[in-house]
Design a protein that fits this description.
With 243 residues, the protein is of the alpha/beta class. The protein has one domain: Thiamin diphosphate (ThDP)-binding fold, Pyr/PP domains (Rossmann fold). The protein is 39% helix and 16% strand. The protein is built from 10 helices and 7 strands. α1 crosses α8 and α4 crosses α5. The longest helix has 19 residues.
Length: 243
């Protein structure tokens, strides 16, 4: 297997079965394949997403909770020739940072947001996320998410599919080899839209959090396939015809 220069040789520090390691590798590989490493600046969101500087050999800025999109916007405006990537979890992006995320898309900021959606706030112990399924238990909702108290799961990718400032919006997963290949393609396409200055691009990557779901990695992978992807279906929501 070819060495990925963007990926540092660092021991895996996430929980067993965590999807972040796979996502780190596929994004680093996508950057390497296109020769974008020297141009890239990553903004790490809070929570489990904030370990990017441990694993990626490129410039990384850590942002306060919910502020990765805002920080990325500032960096891109100061350095419009750089490839700016905001890497966030679902609690960070779709929860605390939703306003910044939506406003950046509305303005058509020329940056890329990658949201790793494991349907939970993993670093804080597995609390309810805006994307958690109805009936899915969490630490803060041991009897499962209730529509009456928490509403329906938020589908961010679909929302961007309707926004003129966001020419690219896609949801992928990392539960199978084929899905990982699709995820690499989606990341490269999203970054391509940024490189040609077409506006805000977004990739949602569905993953698992076995401890947060109170499941084994095998059980969590099956739950993702059988339950999660039915509520958060994979696929391209928008690809501008102007490339």
């Amino acid at each position: 297997m070819a060495k990925i220069n963007t990926l540092l040789d660092t021991p895996f520090a996430f929980c067993p079965g965590c999807s972040h390691g796979v996502v780190h590798r596929l994004i680093a590989g996508a950057i390497d394949q296109k020769g974008w490493r020297e141009q890239a600046i990553a903004v790490a969101g809070a929570g489990c997403a904030n370990r990017l500087d441990t694993y990626w050999d490129l410039d990384v800025v850590e942002a306060p909770y919910g502020m990765a999109t805002a920080v990325a916007t500032g960096i891109k405006r100061v350095h419009p020739d750089r490839l700016v990537i905001a890497y966030m979890g679902d609690g960070d992006a779709a929860g605390a940072g939703l306003a910044e995320l939506m406003q950046a898309a509305t303005r058509g900021e020329k940056l890329t947001v990658i949201m790793v959606n494991n349907l939970t706030l993993g670093l804080s112990g597995g609390h309810l996320s805006p994307t958690t399924l109805v009936g899915q238990p969490s630490i803060s909702s041991p009897y499962g998410r209730s529509i009456e108290s928490a509403g329906h799961p938020l589908r961010v990718t679909e929302a961007f599919g309707r926004m003129p400032g966001a020419p690219y919006s896609c949801r992928v997963a990392v539960d199978t080899a084929d899905h990982v290949e699709d995820a690499v393609t989606a990341v490269q396409e999203a970054l391509h839209y940024q490189m040609i200055g077409k506006g805000f691009s977004f990739v949602e990557i569905m993953g698992i959090c076995p401890p947060g779901w109170n499941q084994t990695p095998q059980e969590a992978t099956e739950y993702l396939k059988d339950k999660v992807l039915a509520e958060h279906p994979l696929g391209l929501r928008k690809r501008s015809t102007t490339r």
